[in-house]
Amino acid sequence: MPITSRAAVIREAPGKFEITEVQVDDPRQNEIRIKMVASGLCHSDDHVVTGDLPVAVYPVCGGHEGAGIVESVGPNTPGFAPGDKVVFSFLPACGKCRWCSSGHQNLCDLGATVLVGSRWEDPTSFRLKLEDGSPVAQFLGISTFSEYTTVSVDSAIKVADDTPLEKACLLGCAAGTGWGSAVNSGDVKPGDTVLILGVGGIGTMAVQGAAHAGAANVIVVDPVAFKREHAQELGATHAVATAEEAAELAQSFTNGQGADVSIVTTGVISGEHVAQAFAATRKAGTVVVTALGKATDVGVPISLLELTMYEKTVKGSLFGSSNPRADIPRLLELYRNGYLKLDEVITTEYSLDEINQGYEDMHAGKNIRGVIRF
């Protein structure tokens, strides 16, 4: 029988989260129902609130960075049992399509329907419903802002029984996205000079990835002093308030050449942010674009001559170009061994009822990463 769950939903955009009751389907084959433990308050969900990231169906239940415990398992669904701990991957991985088969699970073909919020195979079938039976879309197919949620096994990674899910929830987005932006997408090398624009939850993880990869200089840019100071505690060597200051620093360390890798992890991206990173990057250097902005915005004001003549690379990075089935367990081991800091990134814990306050704190620059504890 479906169970009743309290959840944070958005009825229209722009709007705000509303706590209401939803009915959560029993799991079907290849599905599991999860009792949530914790969910990170990622800026991507706020992009849905503002309407910058439009979804196909409203109301939609938010949340995509989370972890919980298996409550029930669908029929003929091997590999999971009640009581198992799981971390969600906000992008599903089928393991069979061209992208999964070639080591690009973050680009899995199942991702084509994640903004619909239905079951992958049927755009009319929804796992969450209101009391009157009308559908509630699941953001990215998982909706971690609900006390219970039913998901496809394509979106769940089983982890060890002793995993602290209240910390490991960050592995579902922030850790892989930020760390991978430096290590995978940016291919940071020992001795590199790395520039990171924006050091919230994602940027702070990019700092750790760059430092772990052996960067000699990790320069962060953020207008909020608290975030700059926090980034220096986690591996940044220099922290400044403006991109212009960062570019000068990068040049001073590289005989005037500029950063080897620049990573854009601002809360809301603009073409100007990419242009600033591009200008601060050396010949044959790489600009990694990770942040999100308004879906309809186009254009980056960079010199096309410089793009060609200096052979610079500008590339997007989705989930840090990671393979979640391999990389989430790998990052968990790095956390266990002290190389990846998660506890230090979580600034404040909130109840589900405090979700709007959590996002107000994010906008006010009070949090690196807020987390909902269920």
Give a quick summary of the entry.
By secondary structure, this protein is an alpha/beta fold. The chain contains eleven helices and 18 strands.
Relevant terms:
Rossmann fold; 6-stranded parallel β-sheet; single chain; 18 strands; 7-stranded mixed β-sheet; alpha/beta; Quinone Oxidoreductase, Chain A, domain 1; 374 residues; 26% strand; 11 helices
Q: What features would you describe in this structure?
A:
- There is one protein chain.
- This protein has 374 residues and is α/β, with parallel strands linked by helices.
- It has two domains: 3-172 and 344-373, Quinone Oxidoreductase, Chain A, domain 1, CATH 3.90.180; 178-317, Rossmann fold.
- It has helices spanning 43-50, 98-101, 165-168, 174-185, 201-212, 225-233, 243-253, 271-279, 304-309, 324-336, 355-363, and strands spanning 3-10, 18-24, 31-40, 60-61, 66-73, 85-88, 128-129, 135-138, 148-152, 156-159, 193-197, 217-221, 238-240, 259-264, 281-289, 313-316, 346-350, 369-373.
- Strands 3, 5, 6, 9, 10, 17 and 18 form a seven-stranded mixed β-sheet that branches.
- α9 (304-309) links the parallel β15 and β16 (313-316).
- α4 crosses α5 (201-212).
- The model has no long low-confidence stretch (mean pLDDT 97).
